[in-house]
Amino acid sequence: MSLWTKARELAEQAPPERNRWVDFLRALSIMAVVIGHWLVAAPYLDGNGEVVGGHLLGILPWSQWLTWGFQVMPIFFLVGGYSNGVSWAATKRKAEPGQAGVYRDWFASRVQRLINPVFPVLLLWAVLALGMTLAGMDRANVRMATELALIPVWFLAVYLLVTGLTPLSKWAWERFGFGSFFALVVAAVAIDWLTLAQGVPWVNFANFLFVWVGIHQLGYAWQDGRFASAGVALATFAAGLAALLGLTVFGPYPIAMIGVPGADMTNSMPPTLALFALGVLQAGLVLALEPWGRRMLDHTSLWTATVLMNGMIMTVYLWHLTAFVLVMVSAWLLGGLGLDLYPGTAAWWWTRPVWFLLYILALLPMIAVFARHERAFGPIRGGRTVPKARVVAGVAMICLGLAMTAAISIASPEGITGVRIWVVALPYVGAAFLGFGPVYQWVKKGS
Predict the structure, then answer these.
(1) How far is CA 228 from CA 111, 234, 291, 367, in A?
(2) Against a cut of 0.85, is the pTM above it?
């Protein structure tokens, strides 16, 4: 049976009350990220024949405006708020009165679904980093390749934390409504004021929660029908656009919604009030389009394609930069074939479709091999409730491992292996604490 046939069967089984626009936006947001990454990463050969890691946003400043369309992680958090709200409400309805461990089991299950697809890509790049180091490759190049391929994992650490706060944030929404959203706006404003006006260090990392939980709150509003009126959605879009223009064009924030090499400030690491405004803008826009989108998804073929994409969405997200690195290394081994064009020139733009085709061809085998990990769900600890301390410890280790992978890389400038083994190990051990994953299965078989 073909993948399309399987997807069509699943599409036909979807209940009529399912909001198909949620699934479409989830797929759309990840695909926009993939295309954006493939576009802005622009290595080329310099005059000495050395590969330079070019970045389109630094080379062509006007292209920074494109990030307002390609930086769509806010949409993913919006969809996450809707989905987590629905899932948590359903879990509470099904739970028996006084049943213990409801939240722990729900959260452990959500963690499993997000982290299972990470294990193979993390392991592969640990092995590659080890092999490249032992082969004598320059460690700076090993780190560059490893960092580039594993850029996507930062998002999972933040998303896990936001998901873990679902019972609290959902309660705040039910108790205070939009007040819970505006409180987070005020908190984000305060954090940026402390950072930009007062020069307080490190405090801006709090906006990883204030900004993303704030967008997540809008997902609850969507679920509750607070954007059912096109006027409300369009007013939200207009407010977000006005705030974003004021903060960037007339304010101190950069235009680019992702980091630009050499820039004094970034809107994404950690997120700023400008990225918060972009999230409000995007939420208003996609929710204003919802009636049209849901009618569009009544067409069987488009809905089937959406189901198919959602069945491999994390695989595409986690492996798309590995495919990019594979193509770039192949081009370099072929004498720099195609890398002699300077980014941003007319010839460079005309060749983008060819490069994108190569990236897709490199990605397809990875999807075929690794997409099954998105469906490799089993009962946590054989269906038994995970002790609270183990949930806390497990999630903390997973988030720390993913955060360190993004922050300092798994590639090490020292040591024989060239790999920060503790960084690689943390997500595996954390998953074992929660009762799933390769380490847990290995220990279980050995006991």
Answers:
(1) 31, 11, 9, 37
(2) yes
